[in-house]
Each structure stands twice: as C-alpha cells, then as structure tokens.
Write a structure and sequence with these properties.
Elements (H helix, E strand, L loop, with lengths): L2 E6 L3 H11 L5 E7 L2 H11 L3 E4 L8 H11 L4 E6 L4 H10 L3 E4 L4 H12 L4 E2 L1 H15 L4 H6 L3 H11 L4 H8 L3 H15 L4 H10 L8
Parallel strand pairs: 1-2, 1-3, 3-4, 4-5, 5-6
Helix pairs in contact: 2-3, 3-4, 8-10, 8-11, 9-10
Pfam families: GerE, Response_reg
Protein name: LuxR family transcriptional regulator
Keywords: DNA-binding, Phosphoprotein, Transcription, Transcription regulation
C-alpha cells in the first residue's frame, strides 16, 4: 500500500509540479493539497497521512506552528519542510518544533524523492546546503567560549526582552507588549548590555541571532 502524503504550499503551480514529480511513484501518493496553514491542519487531521511536505512561510498559520501542532496531536506523522529559505533561524526553529527533514526548493527532483524516502524510513533528512550552514554555525559558536555561560546568568524576563530586541522592537513596543514601564525596559536593556559585554543594541541583536534567541513569527 502506498504511503499517503499531504502537500502544503501557498503557490498552487508549485504544488502541481511536486504532484507531477511524485505521480509515477510506486511507494507514495498525494492524498491532499493545502494552500494555507489552517487548510493544512484540516487536511492532515482528515487524511492522517504518513508524510506532510510543508512550506514555512504561509498564510494564516506558518509552517513552524503547523509542525508543532501536528507533532503534538499526531507524533507519528512525518514532516518534511520544503523551503526556499536557507536561514539558520528558520531551520533551527522548525527542527525544534519536530520536523523530520529540511530540503530546499532549489533541489533537483531526485533529491526530493530521496528526502521523502529517508524521512519515511524514520531518519532525518537535511539538504547538503543546510548541513553546511549548521556545521559552520556550530564551529563558529565553539570559537566563542563562555557564550552559553553568559546566557545562563540572564533572568527569564531578560531573555524575553533580548528576543524582542533582536526582532527590532523599540523600547516603547517592548513596554506595550510585556505590559511593563518604559523605564523598566531601559533598566533591563542596560543590565543586558552589562551582563553580555555588549556596548549597544546592535551588538545585543547580533548576540541574540548567534545564540538562536530570535523569534520567528512570520
């Protein structure tokens, strides 16, 4: 019996192309298509597929949240991310959410087929470009002794504010989002710069990016 796949992307022509690539497969079949995060969850709950091929940036609910919801409700369902983004933050966040693989849309059809086989076998698949990016980033972090120790001295509120700073939020916006005073935000920012050895907000932002503290909610 063929394994059932749900395809999710907001570009219908792209989904038709993927369907065409898989049309001759003897092992998998496209059971349903969805064009938004909300449609994806509805289709996955109805079909209960073996595999979901999923984009990240989509209307209504992004792929990270879809992945998190599916893995919470149906942990046996495999999820292969197929994205145009070679972005460390996106990759880390979606893997943390439970994705079983991350392939790039620029990949050749043969690589997509191979990625599907690997993920359905129970292993994780990462495109070569993704592996290279993550390894280089890991090596770079190894060259920065004490980074994790610095993070450990931050309070939960300080980490929250650092994450919002990394998203480009102003002190006024942070104050409104966290329901705290502007003066309290300024105090936290001064404490963050002191604890992390950063001279300004730009350095704080770069630090947050390097340590994976940036939020992805697009």
């Amino acid at each position: 019996m063929k394994k059932k796949i749900v395809l999710v992307d907001d570009h219908k022509i792209f989904l038709e192309g993927i369907s065409g690539i898989l049309s001759d497969s003897k092992t998998v079949e496209v059971a349903e298509r969805a064009y938004s995060g909300r449609e994806a969850l509805e289709a996955i709950r109805a079909v209960k597929p073996d595999l979901v091929i999923l984009d990240i940036t989509m209307p209504e609910i992004n792929g990270i949240e879809v992945t998190r919801a599916v893995k919470h409700e149906m942990p046996a369902v495999k999820i292969l991310i197929l994205s145009m983004h070679l972005d460390r933050r996106m990759i880390i966040e979606v893997l943390k959410a439970g994705a079983d693989g991350y392939a790039l849309k620029e990949s050749e059809p043969a690589e997509l087929v191979a990625a599907i086989d690997v993920v359905l076998s129970g292993l994780m698949y990462l495109s070569p470009g993704v592996v290279t990016l993550l390894i280089r980033d890991y090596i770079q972090k190894l060259a920065l002794p004490g980074a994790q120790e610095k993070l450990e001295v931050l309070s939960a509120r300080e980490k929250e504010i650092l994450s919002l700073i990394s998203d480009g939020k102003s002190a006024k916006e942070i104050s409104a989002e966290l329901c705290i005073s502007r003066n309290t935000v300024d105090v936290h920012r001064r404490n963050l710069k002191q604890k992390l050895g950063c001279e300004n907000l730009n350095e704080l932002t770069r630090y947050a990016m390097r340590e994976g503290l940036m939020n992805f909610d697009r």
